[in-house]
Amino acid sequence: AQQASRVSVSIDTAHPGPVIDPAVQGQFAENLGRGLYDGIWVGHHSNIPNRNGFRTDVLEALKQIHVPVVRWPGGCFADTYDWRDGIGPLSERPVGINTNWGGVNDDNSFGTNEFMNYSEALGADAYVSGNMGSLPPYTMRKWAEYITDGGDGAMARLRRANGRDKPWTNLKYWGFGNESWGCGGHMTAEYSTDLHNRYATFVNPAPGAPDFVKVAAGPHDDLYDWTEKLMQKSKDRLGAISLHYYVFPYGWDHKGPALGFDEDAWAITLEKARHIEELIAKHSAIMDKYDPEKKVGLYVDEWGTWYDPEPSSNPGFLYQQNSLRDAEVAALTLNIFHRHSDRVKLAAIAQMVNVLQAMILTKGDKMVRTPTYWVFDMYKVFQGATPYPVAIQTPDYRYGDHDVPMVDVSAAKAKDGKLYLALVNSDPHKAAHVVTGMTGSASGQILTGPAMDTHNSFDAPDTIHPVAFSGTKDGGKLAFDLPAQSVAVVEVRQR
Ligand code: AHR
């Protein structure tokens, strides 16, 4: 074994940052592949144990990680979706074609009531992505009424006829289109901005219902001009701008496999994951010019790894395995969100179940929790926590042309008043000896594995999961011996 690298960390508890919105641990659940159908919805008559058609194993596993918000129904699917197809008796719902994802038929059995009931069952807020690409604002307005009207309007009556008396009260976010620069309509920034203003004028919660945050279809990656246009022309008609950023290790045309990859793929993936920090900083700087009080949120409502589809799966279903590398990406990204808690008020990893960087994979009645799931489980203490600035002296982890800081640390005081640290070692070979300036002790959990692609499979669902981890001492100071390729979250008890 190589000698451990020395890392020093200093936590500035005198300068707390803005609270980490719990919603940065949000989930994205598109009508895509087996994300909804099979993944969370099996229907009332399935042999798979379910509660009102929702598979019980997945529901319970998701409850454990305290999902704060779920975004639905897309994604690209959102701008093809007519909500009226997904309400009423199942036998009367029309069969649609999911033209974005695999060209498969969609019986519309998972619609608005199912989504709202599911998010409610999870204890999560709902984030509905409205169709701005191919339906008029009137239709979108009626959808919002269907969900929120507690009065006696036609949409409230329709909802009651469909079995739901009271309006749902957990509708907290409303998206206006998705990726308008691409699958959402291939618009210019100017046109999309005008369209946002038009739709946002007419789509509101019913009178008396809780307000929702209006989210504009925003940029991807470094499309800074899009942010500039939205802030210039729509600032007063939106509560947030979305940002999408995916990590494709070798680009769109050759993404690379989810498992069985080499060290170059490990290093480039982590380097690209870290790149989101620069993107957030630059989009935020543009927003600061127009909104110095930081009222408008930057919602990273699609992020995560995107690899080649799993061999023998439908390529339109975006089904991929998930390994220790994805756990590193998740932890590094969540740490970045903590550092930008002034602007990043919501994020949604793509996607919750069976699609891209999923929490959970299912096959028939089997389910596995992925390494990414375990990161979200360990990180739930950071929901609503107050972050502290961290100064870190760390060597870099280098491979070929790729270069990232070896260790990353996030620190925050949780809602329960306890101090937590999240520590990530990105070097797949070397341990890190991390020395803090604090005295006291620490204990928590660590996620690591023998191989870069250590993962859980349906045959071996428990290969990788968090195990107990404690701090040590160095010259009277609290320290950590962080193994290679690991993610840890610990509670610190200062003295
Ligand atoms: O998450 C998969 C797709 O990626 C979404 O539908 C789209 O918004 C993005 O391009």
Automatic annotation (TrEMBL):
Give the highest taxon in the source lineage: Bacteria
Keywords associated with the record: Carbohydrate metabolism, Glycosidase, Hydrolase, Signal
EC number(s) on file: 3.2.1.55
Q: Which GO terms describe its molecular function?
A: alpha-L-arabinofuranosidase activity
Show where the Alpha-L-arabinofuranosidase C-terminal domain sits. Answer: 301-486
Q: Which GO terms describe its biological process?
A: L-arabinose metabolic process; polysaccharide catabolic process
Q: Which InterPro entries match?
A: Alpha-L-AF_C, ASD1_cat, GH, Glyco_hydro_b
Q: Which reaction does it catalyse?
A: Hydrolysis of terminal non-reducing alpha-L-arabinofuranoside residues in alpha-L-arabinosides
Q: How does it assemble?
A: Homohexamer; trimer of dimers.
Tell me which family the UniProt entry assigns to this protein: Belongs to the glycosyl hydrolase 51 family.
**Stated name of the protein:** non-reducing end alpha-L-arabinofuranosidase
